[in-house]
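Need tokens for this chain, all 517 residues.
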Amino acid sequence: MAMGWTIADLVRRGVAKHATHAAISFEGRTCSYAELDERSSRVADGLLREGITAGDRIALFAKNCPEQFEIILGASKAGAITVPINWRLSPSEVAYILDNCGARILFVGEEFESLIEGIRESLPLSKYLVLGAADSPKGYARWRGQHDARDPLCPVDPDDVALLLYTSGTTGRPKGAMLTSRNLSTLLDAVGPMWGLNEDTRSVACMPLFHIGGIGWALAALRFDGTIVLVRMFDAEDLSVTISRERATHVNLVPAMISALVNSPSVRKLDHSSLRMILYGTAPIGKQTLAAALEVFNCAFVQVYGLTETTSAITELDAQDHRGQDETALSSAGRPYPWVDVKIVDPLTLESCDTNEPGELWVRSAQNMRGYWRDPVATAATIGDGWLRTGDTGYLDAAGYLYLTDRLKDLIVSGGENIYPAEAERILLEHPAVSDAAVVGVPDSRWGEVAKAVVVLKPGSSVSSEEIVQYVRQRLAHFKCPTSVDFVETLPRNAAGKVLKRQLREPYWEGHSRRIN
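Here are the structure tokens for all 517 residues:
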């Protein structure tokens, strides 16, 4: 497939090449390329009949299921933009995203229908359809079946925005990263051969499809005419069984998942010899975990680093780097891909840093997002002269390996989930007993790091750590909430009044050379 495809072209190519080949395997059921093509065309026709036009947004709010691919591909055929939403978010967060993106139609998992009903009145939705509700008038399958199975062949350009993925915002509000099909093709066309993807690939997709690491990984299998072995939610024991039963060849995980997998009861009793590669990201892998995983799976391990804003991976620590199990190399994020330019920049002078000198990582690549949806200020602060400022700090060694050290944006990555402290801080400051608060990432052996609240109470006030945690949990997705609270008399601030997060974090990270997990 030549450079310049759209997401819809992935199924068009697949059905032309091998119509009966399985495109998706899910919980004992398969969907062929022909079936996926037909169903996505029905979705496209349905969207057009609902008045959806090029550039309109349709949203997904569901756990992993095959219907999501019908919708994503169908939206691409109709020229619409798909907005997958994190189902772990609170109702107010979901409402904000739906309002901000102006989604016209929402496809929602059956278990989340009541949540949507609770916020429906405040939304711009013209309609929502329920996945899995076969007998409901709002049932997706019934709606899909009413529409034409012919591909509408709408004119769609590879440079049109295809996906809008919301990332948690440093200002306490999520921002929508605008990604095009060309962003995706730049990465997938190049890495597919490197990772051995082909029509025999059976690639396990267990990461949530609202993550670029989930949807990008799954689409890579379609790009090379393989099969997506779709998993609804990660469970170590179930995944071990799935890899064995499905004769999976590739899987994408985070280190916490790999650790859980190698420690699951059945993993050493099952046959995983079909597995060729385990890709992982968001954190380096511990030497003990890697040694155990190599023993159990005896396959290639590849680490990637990237952001939603860079359409996922921009650097790779390849299989050869893992074979030697060199601790220094394993603590790096690998080397930039040949088509990706990176530089380390002094955040104050904006001058390029020397080898081994830390600064902010800037990226220039055709993978860089178009910008943030309806947020020109944030876009201008992130992208300039073709360079994207990642907000991550690190350095490049003489061999070109990237070592990440900290985050300018205070981002916390816990078990693969991005947590921006500003979201929890905004809620903490609403508590009647709290006068000041900050949230920082602290080390955690299982998740890499977790959020901790550092709180200053109002004079005469008394509240427990547990009460503070519960207060935030009632108002924010649980994975974004602090897991513990420390009480202090004052927070360290600079002359401009900004909390000195690095100073706050320092005691918790003592003895840890890498301050980003």
